[in-house]
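Friendly challenge for the regulars: who can give me the C-alpha cells for this chain first? No prize, just bragging rights.
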Amino acid sequence: MGQLVLAAKVTHVPSLMLSEQPGSPLRAAREPAVSSLRELRRRAKERGVTSFVVFDTHWLSNFGYHVNANARHRGSFTSHEAPQMIQDLRYDLPGDTRLAEAIAGRAADAGLNVTAHQVASLGLEYGTIVPMHYMNPDGFAKVVSVASPLFTSFEESRILGEATRRAIDESDERVAVLASGSLSHRLWPNKKLGPEAWTSVASEFNRQVDLRVLELWQSRRYREFLDMLPDYATKCNGEGGMADTIMLFAALGWYDYCGTAEQLCDYFPSSGSGQVNVEFHVGA
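First reply, four minutes later:
Bragging rights claimed.
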C-alpha cells in the first residue's frame, strides 16, 4: 500500500528564480523561501519519497481537469508571463504514469471529468517547475502535475483531492503532495510594477486575512479555516480559485485532519500577492 508521507503548501513565485541571478537585490528577501523549499527536499529524501504530486495553480485549464501522466518530463522553460525572471530553465524529471492514471481513474469513479495525458510535447508549468527546481533538481523522485481548472466548483476540486488520496493509498509509492500557489493573489497593476512591488502586498485586507489563516493553521483550527475557504478564495483573489489548497486539504482528510502546521518561512509578499511555505504533518 502507498503512503502520504509529506504534504505542504508552497510558493512558486518567479522572483525566486530572479533572486538567483548575480547581484540580484532580491537575494536576501527570497533566501528564507528558497531555504525552506530546500528543507522540504531534505525531509522528502529522509522520508523516502518516491513521487511528488503537485497541484499546480499555474497550469490553468478552461476545459476539465488534467493530469500530466508522461513517463518523463523534459524541456526548457521560458515563462510567457515573466520571461525576464524565468528563461531557458531546463528540467529533466521522471514521471509517474501509473499514479497519474490512478488519480484520474479514481476521480472519474467519483463522476469528475479528468483526463490523464501521455503527450511528449505537454510540458510542465512553472507552478511545478519552480518547486521542483529546489526540491527535486536531480530527479530523485517521480513527478505528477495536476492542473487547476478555471471553470469549476469548490466541490469538484475537493473530489479530486480525495481521489488523489485514494490513488496514493492504493499505490506502491511514498508520496509528497504539494499545493503550489499563493495565499491571497491580488497583483499590483502594471503601472505600479517595479522593485518595490516585489516586496509589498497590494491589499491590506488580503494581508490581514492571510495572517489570520496562518494563525488558524498554527492553532489547528482547520474546521474554521475550511468553512471560510470559499469566501477566502473569492474575496482575496485566490490564485486558480485556491484549487491547490482545496485539493491539499481534501487529500489530508478535510475536517478529519488534525496534524501540525509548521510554517517554514515568514509570510512574504511578491508582486502584491501573499506567499509562504508550510508543511502539514501527516502520520504519527
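The two ends are 17 Å apart (CA to CA). The chain is about 35% helix and 25% strand. Your move, everyone else.
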